Amino acid sequence: MIQYGRNILGDGAQIFEPVILGFPSREYLGVEEYQGTIIGKNAILRTGTILYCNVIIGDNFSSGHNTIIRENTSIGDNTAIGTSTVIEGDCVLGKNVHLQSMVFLPTDTIIRDDVFIGPNSILTNDRYPPSKRSELKGPVLEDRVTIGANVTILPGIHIGEGAAVAAGSIVTKDVPAGMLAIGAPARLRPLPEEMRRL
């Protein structure tokens, strides 16, 4: 394991080399003393995982191979991040979040508790790239949201509690709580009873 900065790794961690903890963001390049990564108990970090500085992760975390989590990101307990997933800086993920392989979360994304995001899904934060940092606006996914595979979510989109997005959809407008977004561009329908998550 390669470490930069001051890292804290909870008991019971399983580390499959090589893994990098506390990788410096631009402002810490060449600096020896800074806050690295803090990880709770019983983590599983698979080969190729890179966790940047000021990343705080709860208990029972697991990462797939070649996962990257950028600086100033917080992640709750019992969260799993799939292989080759990238989480850009300044993101917040709640507890019991499951991101499948090759998901991309941009800067300023907020994901609440009990959220599932299927493989190859892309969330965005820049409507007219390239924009200034102050103009970026990440999506917000509330509790118990389900996102299918190969979904694209545009900047600043709000997906309400218990809503779902069907595989292959392109979400261009907010999705109210308890609704299903389907299609490209996505249209709203009532969420079928069998898809409702308790």
From TrEMBL:
Family matches, as InterPro entries: Hexapep, Hexapep_transf_CS, Trans_hexapeptide_repeat, Trimer_LpxA-like_sf
GO MF entry, a single one: transferase activity
Q: Which Pfam families match?
A: Hexapep (PF00132), Hexapep_2 (PF14602)
> Which biological process terms from the Gene Ontology are attached to this UniProt entry?
diaminopimelate biosynthetic process; lysine biosynthetic process
Listed A to Z, the keywords are: Amino-acid biosynthesis, Diaminopimelate biosynthesis, Lysine biosynthesis, Transferase
Question: Looking at the record's lineage, which domain of life comes first?
Answer: Archaea
PANTHER family attached to this UniProt entry? 2,3,4,5-TETRAHYDROPYRIDINE-2,6-DICARBOXYLATE N-ACETYLTRANSFERASE, ACETYLTRANSFERASE
The protein's name: Transferase hexapeptide repeat containing protein
Q: Which organism is it from?
A: Methanosphaerula palustris (strain ATCC BAA-1556 / DSM 19958 / E1-9c)
Q: What is the lineage of its organism?
A: Archaea, Methanobacteriati, Methanobacteriota, Stenosarchaea group, Methanomicrobia
